Amino acid sequence: IHDKNFVHSIYQKVLMWKYIFTTAIMLLGQHTLKSQTLSDNQVAGTWYVTRWETDNRLLDFEDSLANMNYMVERFRQKNKVSAVSSVDSVRIRLEIRKVMSAAEALRFQLFFNKDKTFTWKGHNSDTTAQYKGTYSLSSNTQEIVLTSLDDRTKSYQTTALKLHAIHPNELVIEIPSEEEGLKQSKFTLKRM
Description:
- The protein is of the alpha+beta class.
- About 40% of the residues lie in helices and about 35% in strands.
- It has helices spanning about 1-35, 40-45, 65-80, 85-105; strands at about 45-55, 55-60, 110, 115-120, 130-135, 145-150, 155-165, 170-175, 185-190.
- Strands 1-3-4-5-6-7-8-9 form an 8-stranded antiparallel beta barrel.
- Residues about 20-25 and about 30-35 have low confidence and may be disordered.
């Protein structure tokens, strides 16, 4: 009888843990689905690029310390040194200023309207880099699909922006490109 009660007790504990585990998985699944459900209200608004990063580049337009730390770490790895000399530090700072000045032209704004239209506007009021069209959220909500009419060719162009993260005031997207130096470019945009 003792062994039978012991086995029954173990069996009940296994069933209890199985129930707890199944419930936890189900709740996690519901949370994940909820967190992946993207609404137009989350996307609608004015967004401005504050950061651009690739596998070998980081340009943060709001955090100069992040740029410096990134460049110093790359220098240390490339030159296999543990410290950076003051001469090299000055050289790195000058390079960052030069790169950031040139990169300012890469910044853009995205306007997502509630009526599913968008405007992609270049740096400041550069009207040469402006695209208008409609947007949609892909069924799996991992992409924002932009469609616009090319004035020169009179054909529609579609671009799918891979969505890495969305928060109330921050959007992280990847713009598809096969161009060297732009592959897997992630842009962080802040809501204006």
